[in-house]
C-alpha cells in the first residue's frame, strides 16, 4: 500500500477492515524471531527461556521516530518514546488502573 503524499487524516478516511487485515499480514511478515524474543524478554524479564536479550533501545527509538515522522506526527520526541516504553516495564497500581476500569464499564 503506497501512502506517499497522503496525510494521516486522508489515510484513516480511506481505511477499512480489508485494508487493515492486509496491513497486519504485511507487518507480521516483517517480524523476526529475534524481535519476538526481545519483546518477550522485555515483557517477561524473569523468564530466561527466550535465548537472547535483544534490548537495543536506541535502535527501537530511532525506528519509532522514523515511523512517526513518516505518518506526519511532528511532535514525537525520543525522550517521549523512551518514557512510554519504560512506563510499560513498570507494573501499574490499582489507582492507575481504576480510570481504565471505569471507562471500560461506561462502554458496556
Summarize the structure in words.
Helix content is 63%, strand content 0%. The protein is mainly alpha-helical. It contains 6 helices and no strands. The mean pLDDT is 76. It has one domain (31-106).
Offer a few descriptive terms.
108 residues, 6 helices, mainly alpha
Topology (SSEs and partners):
Blueprint: H1 8-13, H2 17-30, H3 33-43, H4 57-70, H5 78-87, H6 94-106
Question: Whole-number radius of gyration?
Answer: 17 Å
**What low-confidence regions span 5 or more consecutive residues with pLDDT below 50?**
none
Number of helices: 6
Secondary-structure content class:
mainly alpha
User: Percentage of helical residues?
Assistant: 55-70%
Q: Which series of helices and strands comes N to C?
A: HHHHHH
Q: How many domains?
A: 1
What is the CA–CA distance across the termini? 35 Å
State which percent range the strand residues make up: under 5%
Q: Could you write a compact summary of the structure shown?
A:
The longest helix is centred in the first third of the chain and has 14 residues, at 17-30. The chain has helices at 8-13, 17-30, 33-43, 57-70, 78-87, 94-106.
Amino acid at each position: 500500500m503506497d501512502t506517499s503524499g497522503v496525510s494521516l487524516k486522508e489515510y484513516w478516511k480511506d481505511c477499512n477492515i480489508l485494508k487493515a487485515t492486509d496491513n497486519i499480514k504485511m507487518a507480521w511478515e516483517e517480524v523476526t524471531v529475534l524481535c519476538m524474543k526481545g519483546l518477550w524478554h522485555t515483557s517477561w524479564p524473569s523468564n530466561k527461556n527466550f535465548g537472547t536479550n535483544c534490548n537495543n533501545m536506541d535502535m527501537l527509538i530511532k525506528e519509532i521516530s522514523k515511523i512517526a515522522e513518516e505518518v506526519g506526527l511532528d511532535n514525537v520526541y525520543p525522550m517521549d518514546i523512551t518514557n512510554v516504553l519504560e512506563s510499560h516495564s513498570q507494573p501499574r497500581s490499582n489507582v492507575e488502573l481504576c480510570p481504565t476500569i471505569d471507562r471500560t464499564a461506561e462502554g458496556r
